[in-house]
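Q: What would this chain look like folded?
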Amino acid sequence: MSPFDLPPGEGRAPLWQLCPELGPATEAFSATVQADTRLPVRVAEAARMRVAELNGCQVCRDTRVDDLAAHGMDEAFYTGVGDPDLRDRYAPEEALAIEFAERFVAGTQAFDEPFWSRMRATFEPAEIVALVVSTSKWLALGRVNAVLDLAVACPVRLSPSAR
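A: My prediction, written as structure tokens:
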């Protein structure tokens, strides 16, 4: 339950009625990060789902990309990201993205040079930037959803980047 009464509506739309100056900027940031990421779909989704689990955002946990099969994904892909015993079923870059998400949520003290060495060996600099910015989006907006107990009536579907 939200800690205060919100205007009617789904998702973050009621918030923007209360703070209309924040809505367009927030939603534009979110849409740009989603549309222009340099990350492969499976890498992004592995990290996004791990952030969703750690954030406790049910909307984020229920969100899926359009056409899972076209990206070599199914529901098991999403349900295993939080289980370290299942990390071997993910490609190395996907598992590293999951670990990145966990460290990002934990805070800056969770990053060390051996981790960054593995990141640099796996990802191009632009991909690392995309992962950092995407993870910040998922953490921040997912936390808004979770803290204010925002929900949607139907599952959200994401259109992956054309990259």
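Helices lie at 13-18, 23-36, 41-55, 58-62, 75-79, 92-106, 113-122, 125-147.
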